[in-house]
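lol ok so funny story. i was supposed to be doing the assay writeup but got distracted and ended up predicting the structure for this chain instead. priorities right. anyway since i did it might as well share w the group, maybe its usefull for someone
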Amino acid sequence: MPANSYTYPPERLLTGANLGNWELFLKLTSVSDVGGLWSAVDNQIYCGRWVTTFSVERERATALETTHAPAYQDTTYRCAGLNIRKLAFLPVRDDLLQIMHMPIAFENPTDKTVVVTVVCDVHFPAFVWPGMYKVPEMAQRNKRVAHREIDGVIVSATVGNDKEVRVFGADAEPASTNLTDRGFQRSYRVDVPARGKSMLEISMSFSHRGHDDAVKTYRLAPRAAEALSQTEAAYERVHRNGVVRTPEATINRGFDWAKINTVRVEHRFPSGFGFTNDPSQDIVVTRDVAWFVTGSDYITPDFSRGMLDLVAAFGIEPGGKITEFINACADPPTRSDYDLNINDDTPLIIGAVHHHFAVTRDRSALDRAWPMTRNALEWILAQMIDGLVFADSRESNVWGISGWRNIIPQGQISGWVTEINAECAYALRLGAQLARLMGAEADAERYAQASDALKDAINTKLVSEKTGLYLLNIDPEGEKHHDLTGDQIFPVLFGVADDQHRRKVLDLLYTPEFWTQFGVRTVGKHQDEYDPDYGIQLLGGVWPNLTAWVGFGGRYYSPRRLASALRNIWRISEVDNPRAYYNVVPGLFPERLSGDSFKSRGMAMSPWMPPTYLWTVYEGLLGFEPTIEGLRINPHVPPDWSWVGARDVPIMGGRLSMFYHRRRLHVNMAVMSRSKIDVYDEDVSRFIECDAPFSVALRQGKRAAIFIGTAAAGSFTVKIMPPLTSSEETHRINLPEGGSKALSLRIAGRASIEELAAR
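and the output, tada:
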């Protein structure tokens, strides 16, 4: 079983995992059956339900345990003495992605041969499962199919669209087949020898290009074992890329699963790279793209670049405003801005462009994004009235809310909105830096002055005389709204609040009115408009991304609260009985929770929360501050932590490894820091082997530092190999919970380590 995995009895799970690759997205049930399979290539649901059951004579197999692993989900069964393991996964590799595998393993510990009947009940139209969060559109639910049986496989094409094809088959002869215009039922009989094992490999391929292409994918795809090995290797590469470890095991697990789930939702649409905020659909929301980039820049920077290219190509409204969303499967892609004159998408995309360049140093990507960025900055300046950015909508819901909480039924947050103004001050400040880099000095000065003026106006005109905190907004009629909501964090988050207001805001959001064991409420519990469940949980429910913003916003003020925010976000993903919290799946970040019962009320897997979690760890705990001038690192760790560490993080055109130990920073790259700092020449971790949860070796000239850290107490072995030593050395080190150890050694001989390594 993989190290990063969770195993639960199916009765404690309402639903199963979500798996994805560039072209497919798969929803599973609690017993590893298919609950929906969608294609990012054409925005179509290809399979609504695929249930696989087992029986021996008249005895039905009983599901015992379901395991959630990075590359797959599986469920074990017991029947007539047989042990059965049903595994479901999507391949993660460069090609032949339009296929799903379901290998089934049978083990017979008895002294006689057992014949097991396997029944696959496949329903192609989209299916409404009990408790399903998102009901598929009727066009998907009304699909009908026509079948052909060819060489042992079933080829099923959608009636009215014969290019939309599925191919189903197995490595065994079917015992029976029953076809309908909705799907089919096919059974197999598998002989499992006494004291022996048997396998049945079932696969289903898909294509929007017709029969020949679907059959080709099915025939050319490797066997399930090889495909699974490729997929596990792909997730292992994700695991090794941008490693972070802390003394807190819960945060480490949340971080690892954040990387896993970030890549699961990265898709290649016909118009370019993107992800959807509500699978299964082709809607790419540009606000979410901006937040996604801040995390994916550290593990999949090429994907970040592709998303920004998508927005630059298809997400710009006349005048330079950034649109709300793009339909990425439409030809050509369509977009919508809900008729808002200003939204949060516009300033956030400017921030994402700045972030991507600051992290990657990809000048060509910046050159492509600069025209979009410059026009967006000009659009912001054109929306100023009385020194503040003004949202002129008088409508409600998505047409009347210009910020992130834009799906409150009948809600309106427009006029002079504090969130929007804080984001625009931030965007203008970063835009000035980009303009200077692009050689537009006059524009740079203009943007910088506008940012400073806007910041002053926010702290003068958008502060409540009743609460001493920030107004939610001044509406288009001039009425001030003094609501105490989680939106107070935005002036803090975007560098607008002064020290006094920053402390007031954080002190409020840290109180039990907002702060809970699973995250931060969107509206204070004692506010008149508080409702823990109404309005998509935006009037008092818990949204994990808000929790991350609050934790990050207080990183200087309270690193302890930052760590607590990260812990609380992931806590619900490891509860003993997920079903008690409704739509919670181990290993996934839920979208939103009730502010009272904390039951999951949205998607089992939030597509945007994983990269937000990564950003909170990298730039919060580790204190990465990527800037135009270079990288600053100022870790924000709780006082009872003695260390944090990272290894092989793609940043600044190189690979960064570091450890922060007893308030001293050790790093293999020239960075700026307020801490005492040792800069090393290179990461030489390839010359050590260590079984501790975290280890790194850094070389500076003829000196090397070896660091190991752990969350759990234990005894660990460190093996140091040439050329770091003249001969192999082994050290045994005992560490307490959250402990660490730094070793220093002189490199043997006169030759450089590069020469020794070459030999």
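The chain has three domains: 6-236, 241-264+271-621, 631-758. Residues 631-758 form one domain.
back to the writeup now i swear
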